[in-house]
Amino acid sequence: MPKMFKKKEAEEKIFKVKRGKFISRLRGMKDILPDEYKYWNLVIKKASELSKAYGFRRLETPILENLELYERSSGRASDLVTKEMFSFVDKNDDKIALRPEATPGLVRAYVEHGMFNLPQPVKLFWLGPVFRHDKPQAGRFRQFSQFNLETIGEPSPVADAELIALTYYFFSELQLEVAIQINSIGCALCRKEYLVKLDNFYKERGRRAKLCQTCKKRLAKNPLRLLDCKEKQCLEIAGEAPQIVDSLCDDCRNHFIKVLEYLDGLDIPYNLNPTLVRGLDYYNRTVFEIWPSSAEATDGKPAEAEALRNEQPRQNALGGGGRYDGLVEHSGGRPTEACGFAIGLERVILKIKEKNIPLKDEEKGDIFLAQLGDQARRKIMLLFEELRKSGLSVRQAFTKDSLKAQLEVANKMGVKYTLILGQKEIMDGTILIRDMESGIQEVIDYKKIAVELEKRLSNNK
Ligand code: HAM
After folding, report:
1. CA–CA dist 451, 112 (Å, integer)
2. Which of 210, 215, 272, 451 has its CA at 20 to 30 Å from residue 98's CA atom?
3. For ligand 1, which residues put their CB under 6 angstroms from it?
């Protein structure tokens, strides 16, 4: 067989790909499509602006960390660790996990990079994806993004109030109504006393027998969590339980009062919520959550958002956080007080969509450059770069040949003017300028394009 023929046959074999079964994305994971980015850009911009204004500096941590980091920080008995972690043993037999939250990794980074040597507090801004093997439903994903702020190395209640105020500004500047829920779960000392009271309460009058199966187990391992169980029978009993704020020691009570006073001073509305305890082990003193306000309008909402709204706001919190004064030391650092919060960005975006808040379409431009023929295309490609570099908002469709197709793209992009270059214009040293609203076309001197555009665009403002 001739050599040439063999080579061709081999190439055909390589490129003959069998059409395979379609593999879709994993359950609970989302693609973010180009049309969605206007929402993402808006919330990320707002988060970045606020963080910068209040002195938080951005930090990123790896998506993979040691599994033990979360077991030790978030809590071995927490739902996050026992049920929701994506963890596995890697090729070196190391137990690792996809981060289910950012706080343990941020505290690790604080200790590992010796940030305790910097002027305190260290204020950190973090934004990125987290992973939880949760049951997917409206507003609950297995990969989602959080915006976190953490103030590490600050015992003052001003820090708690500043963070709560920031969450409030974040939502109000996005025109979203929220209800801030706040409570204090005291320190290890006063909580110990409270837990005895709670234990006695649940043992009285056959209350234990009425609890859901999970709460029966929680009673021995994590009794505080009984207070925020979502089951109806448990909620009813929790409503009558002794309140932790009545058991706070003087220091914890004063701290809480100060936080509330600062919030009052800033006119920030909040609800004192005695059953708010949060599901992670590291919290002490102030805990808070941001719930969607139940007073929001209901018309014209997408089905997904409607389902989300109809569920209990507690399950659909837009954000949450609190103080974690023991976590840095527990993670191997010096005793260091800290507090922080995380906001779930997918839930915020759902709310923005639900409210139909008008957003600027960032893909839109002012000027479109159209060409007819290959010589004109080459010239227009150069002109495009020139105008783009001069700061003008220009758009193009170089791959299209027909003027009709190019004008369709220009219309979609909402441009004010289209410049059209053909063979005749190249010969004459001119270019056509088309007013997209009136459809009127004029011939202008090619050398005067920049001046003409500036004049017309400034008249148009
Ligand atoms: P978290 O309450 O577990 O707190 O999560 C914060 C926010 O993430 C929630 O309020 C919610 O908006 C969003 N979220 C949680 N699970 C999901 C999910 N499956 N799908 C979509 N969004 C979700 C923490 O993560 C703490 N590390 C917050 C913190 C920072 N505390 C102190 N510093």
Report:
1. 56
2. 215
3. 101-103, 132, 134, 140-141, 144, 146, 148, 150, 317-322, 324, 340-342, 344, 346-347
